[in-house]
Structure formats: C-alpha cells, structure tokens
Amino acid sequence: MNELISPALGISPIFWPTLLLMLIYGIRYTVFTGLMFIICRPQFNIGRAHFVPQASFKTSHHVRREIMYSFLTVLVFGAVNGILYGTGWIHASQLYFQLADHSMIWFYLSIPVMLIIHDTLFYWLHRAMHTRLLFNLMHRVHHQSIYPTAFAAYSFHPTEALAEALIVVIIIYMMPCHPFAILAFQTISTAINAYGHSGREFYPIGTDTHWLGRWINTSTTHAAHHVKGRGNYGLYFLLWDRIMGTFESPRK
Ligand SMILES: [Zn+2]
Ligand SMILES: [Zn+2]
Q1: How far does residue 66's CA lie from ligand 2's centre (Å)?
Q2: How do residues 84-103 score in pLDDT, each as one tens digit?
Q3: CA-to-CA distance for 251 and 72, rounded, in angstroms?
Q4: How far is the CA of 33 from the centre of ligand 1 (A)?
C-alpha cells in the first residue's frame, strides 16, 4: 500500500490534499444541505413554501439522486483542487499564506469580491450550459430536479462539476486570496446554494421589486429557473440577468 502512494510514483503529493479537500467539501455540503433540508420540510412552519408541490419532498428517489450526484461533485471538486496543490501548480496562482502579505482590509474585502467574480463567471457558464449541446452534455442532471430540495446544491453531472471547479480556480489565479478567505467564500456559497434550492423563501414578499432586493437571486427566483428551464442564470445576484435581459419573474 505504501508503495502505491510513494513519492517515487508521484501519487502521494496529490493524494493527501485531494483527500483533505474532499472531506472539507463533503462535510460542508452535508452540514448545510442537511440542516436546510430538515428545517425546510413541509411539517416545519418556517418561511414560505410558495411554489413547491409538497409531494416532491417525499420522493426519496428524487432526493437520493440529488445526493448521489452531489457526492460525485465533491469528488471532482476535491480532485481538481488536490491536483492543484499536490502538483505545486497552486504556486503560480495568487494564493498567499501569510496574512501580513496583504492588508486585513483586503482579506475581508476579498470575500465579497470573490462572490461577485464567481457570480459573473457562473452567469456566463450557466448561459452557455443552456445551449442545446452543453445542456445535454453538462447541465441536464441539475435540471432533473424541477422542484429541487436543498440537496440539489451540488447535484451536477461530473462535466458540470469540473467546469464549476475550474471557475473557482480562475478566481485564485485572478486575485490575491488567503486560504481562510476562500474557506469563508465557499462556505457562504454553499449556504446560499442550499437555501436557493430549499423550496422555502425567507426574504419578505415583494423582495423582487425592492430597490436592493431586486438584485438578489432568491430561492424564489432560482425556483423559477428550475420550473421554466430558462432565465435567472445568476448564482447569488441578478445583476447580469437584469443587465442582459434574462430576468424571469417568478410571478408570471
Ligand atoms: Zn440551469
Ligand atoms: Zn439550481
């Protein structure tokens, strides 16, 4: 066994970071989607369940598919990042490990900046994946959940998971970021993703017409994306959907 992971074979430098990252992605996914699924079940009177046929929550086959694909995604996310660290390619990125290398203001600011860049890259990837060819190759699995549960947060075909992992890699090469800031950014991202697929709305009625709320991709607007199969391609925000005219009102 030791020979299998010996440095001479070039496996061990990739093996441990991959395993560690798979654990981080897996635990984070399980905690956030599990908690969101539990509190959003029909028997709990929390938030508004204003669009989900309740029966879909009881379809265990549906939930099992979402969880199975999500754990495949965890493997892909772990592998992509494990390769990056294990091969040393990460040193060509702008990742920095000493907090003193940049100001603390930048450390905190980098988290929302990563969210904004991620939202932008995701919007265009998502639009591309809604072309006929890429939809069949990459995105159909995610849309098998017409009425998703929180577990659909990572429910992607492995080709989509690979593309999703790579757009985060692009961010690390684009801007200086500390591993703790990335940890915070991806934790916020997972929490928002779990909420976005939860079937419940926690924002007040009329958020989509509020001066600030109209820029937020809520659970309601993402549910409209799953039901209609078009529009609202953003991840956290509706900025690009509003600019590019792809906003789909959930009221129609
Ligand atoms: Zn889509
Ligand atoms: Zn979705």
Answers
A1: 11
A2: 998 889 999 999 999 999 99
A3: 34
A4: 19
> What are the angstrom distances between the C-alpha of 217 and each of 25, 43, 131?
23, 26, 21
Tell how far the Cα of 5 is from the centroid of ligand 2, in angstroms: 37
DSSP character for 204? P
206-227, pLDDT tens digit by residue? 888 899 999 999 999 999 999 9
Helix or strand run (H / E) with residue 219: helix 219-228
Distance CA 164, CA 156 (A): 9
Per-position DSSP letters for 119-149, written without gaps between them:
HHHHHHHHHHHTSHHHIIIIIHHHHT-SS--
Please name which of 240, 238, 125 lies closest in space to residue 249, comparing C-alpha atoms: 238
Q: How far is the CA of 225 from the centre of ligand 1 (A)?
A: 7
* Interval between CA 47 and ligand 1 midpoint (Å): 24
Structure tokens at 22: 């798979």
Alpha helix (H) residue ranges in 87-131:
104-129
Report how far ligand 2's centroid is from the alpha carbon of 6 (Å).
Answer: 41
Q: Which residues contact 242 (CB under 8 A, 6 or more apart)?
A: 214, 215
- Can you tell me the distance from the alpha carbon of 105 to that of 21, in angstroms, rounded to the nearest whole number? 27
C-alpha 212 – ligand 2 centre gap (Å): 22
121 CA to middle of ligand 1, Å? 14
Q: Which two tokens stand for residue 34?
A: 């599990």
Q: Which two tokens stand for residue 177?
A: 């970021």
* Residue 177 near residue 171 (C-beta atoms within 8 A): yes
- Rounded to the nearest angstrom, the distance between the alpha carbon of 113 and the centre of ligand 2 is 22
Bridge partners of 177, per DSSP, are 95
Query: What is the end-to-end Cα distance of the chain in Å, rounded?
Result: 59
